[in-house]
Amino acid sequence: MKILAFGATGFVGAHLVPHLRERGHEVTVVARSGKTRFSPEVPVVKADPVTPGPWQDLVGDHDAVVNLAGSPVMTRWNKAGKEGILQSRILSTRHIVDALARTTGKTLLCANAIGFYGDGGDSVCTEETPRGNGFLAEVCKAWQAEALHAQEFGHRVVIPRISVVLGHGGALAKMMTPFSLGLGGRIGNGRQWFSWIHIDDLTRVMSFLLETPAASGPFNACAPGPVTNARFTQALAQALGRRAILPVPAFALRLVLGEAAGMLLTGQRCHPEALKSLGFAFDYPDIDAALAHIVPAFKAARSA
C-alpha cells in the first residue's frame, strides 16, 4: 500500500514507519518541521494537519492514512493545555476526513487511547465497554467520533485504543533512570490496573489492522496480560536487578501534575478481544518477557 502518515515523528511513529517499509509498503510522512530522522527513501511533506492546506490533496493519492497526531498529555493540565490536547486531535482528524471526503475506498487508521474507559477500576474493559468519565475519556470520545465520520464517505476506519507503550524510549525511558538507581516504586497504593503493550507488538498491531480488510472500528491495542501498578513496578525492578523501595505518594503526584495525576493513580484493565477475534498473536503477552527484551537495550545504551 501507499500510506500517508501524520504525527509519525514521535516514539511510536519512529518504529512504525520502518516496520511498514519492511513489509513492502510505501510511506510518506507529513511533519510540521519538514524534517525527520527517517532514511532518505521516506518522502517528507512539511505541513501541519491542524490547519487545512495543499497537503490534503495528497490523501487521494494514497491507499491508507495513519493519524498519530496529537499534543502530549503527560503535562500539568490547565485550561489552555487541555484545549491544546483536545484540539490537536480533533482538528487534525477533521481535516484528514475532509480530504477523504473527496475520494473513496481508502483506509483510515486513527490512533486513540484506553483513556476512553476512564477509571475502569477492577472491571475488564473490552471494545464493547461504554465510555468512562473524565477529561481524557471525553477527548477520546470526540477524537473517535471525528475519525468515524470517514465511514460516511465509504472508507474503512480502524481505531487502535493504545495502552502504555513499552520500549527503548517513550514512557519507559522516564522510569528507567530512577529504577536503575534503586529509587523507583509503586504509584499511590499500587492497586490500579496498568494495561501495556510492547512497541514491537504495537507496530505489528497497526500493520495487521491496515492489512486486514475485515478490521473495522475500535481495537484495544494492549497486551492480553494487564497487571497492577505494583506488579509492574516489581517486574521492572527485577528486570533491572534493583529494588523498588520508594513509592510515590498520591498527594505528591497531585502536587506535581494536578488533575493530570489521575492518569497515573487510576487505570484500566483492558483485554484485546477484537484483535484476538481476528487471530492476532502477541509476541510479548507477558510483562516479564517484555521487560526482559527491552531492558538490555537500555543498559547497553547507558554503557555506550
UniProtKB/TrEMBL annotation:
<dbReference type="Pfam" id="PF08338">
    <property type="entry name" value="DUF1731"/>
</dbReference>
<feature type="domain" description="NAD-dependent epimerase/dehydratase">
    <location>
        <begin position="4"/>
        <end position="217"/>
    </location>
</feature>
<protein>
    <recommendedName>
        <fullName>NAD-dependent epimerase/dehydratase</fullName>
    </recommendedName>
</protein>
<dbReference type="InterPro" id="IPR001509">
    <property type="entry name" value="Epimerase_deHydtase"/>
</dbReference>
<dbReference type="InterPro" id="IPR013549">
    <property type="entry name" value="DUF1731"/>
</dbReference>
<dbReference type="InterPro" id="IPR010099">
    <property type="entry name" value="SDR39U1"/>
</dbReference>
<feature type="domain" description="DUF1731">
    <location>
        <begin position="248"/>
        <end position="294"/>
    </location>
</feature>
<comment type="similarity">
    <text>Belongs to the NAD(P)-dependent epimerase/dehydratase family. SDR39U1 subfamily.</text>
</comment>
<dbReference type="Pfam" id="PF01370">
    <property type="entry name" value="Epimerase"/>
</dbReference>
<dbReference type="InterPro" id="IPR036291">
    <property type="entry name" value="NAD(P)-bd_dom_sf"/>
</dbReference>
